[in-house]
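[job 4471] stage=fold_predict status=RUNNING
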Amino acid sequence: MLSSVFQVLGGLALFLLAMEMMTNGLKNAAGHHLRHMLGHWTRTPLRALFAGFVITGIVQHSGAVTVATIGFVNAGLMTLAQSLGVVFGSNIGTTMTGWLVSLIGFGFKIEAMALPLLAAGVGFKLVSRNPRNQFLGEALAGFALFFLGLSILKTALESSALGFQNGHLINADYGLPAFMLIGLLATVLTQSSSAALAIVLTAAAGGLIPLDNAAAAVIGANLGSTSTAALSALKATANARRLATGHILFNLVTGVIALLVLPAMLWLVNTLTNLLDLEANPAVSLALFHTLFNVLGAAIMLPF
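[job 4471] inference complete, writing structure tokens
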């Protein structure tokens, strides 16, 4: 039992390190191009939404994009309307982590790809004299560590599932609000909704928690991701604080709607999985659920 706990913690630590390496590497490699995308590609709400989606999908860290956007608003480089579009798009972009975990992470032996990528990334960083290429090497190494951390998490949670078959520790009778709170706390503690999402997906794929409870935990993780923006805007300008409030409201409204219509959304997820001929497993279903309720939230909130 104790070894499984340390294995989960080690896998989570490696996952968080990987996310930081990918974010820092890609952000530094992009340089002024990232600022250009945030500053000039946000002239309409839809363009702002698309910019937030693309940037978050690339750097794999919605918190970093949100904090950067708050910084631009704080400096007067973006309006509140532009920045809200970016944040809404960022929420959709963060769902890419779920798809990476579900479609790539569980489809084959992860180490077979991760170790060569790690060697290539470290080699690229050490050999290259161009700073941008060094940052790309760091991002590539982080991408490899992402999958190694996921592999450790998957192994640890699968073994935990065998030990908890009687349901003494994690019980479906806890109810959806309890699992929503678990997802929220996991995100607040790790300061990464992607890390919390990886834990939930691997736990569901290993049979540790049922699909509806895992979906509630995903909603909680989405809501917990607002803590980073809230903290960063505490001493900022009025518009930056309004942006943080808008981010919290978006995730709260989206989460409440998803929780209220959860059975219907899970039915829709099952229908779309069959129509798109996707692999039928809890991880894919949760990734699709995460994407659907964030797109639904953006469709509801963006006109306002």
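[job 4471] summary: Confidence is low (pLDDT under 50) at residues 161-169.
[job 4471] exit 0
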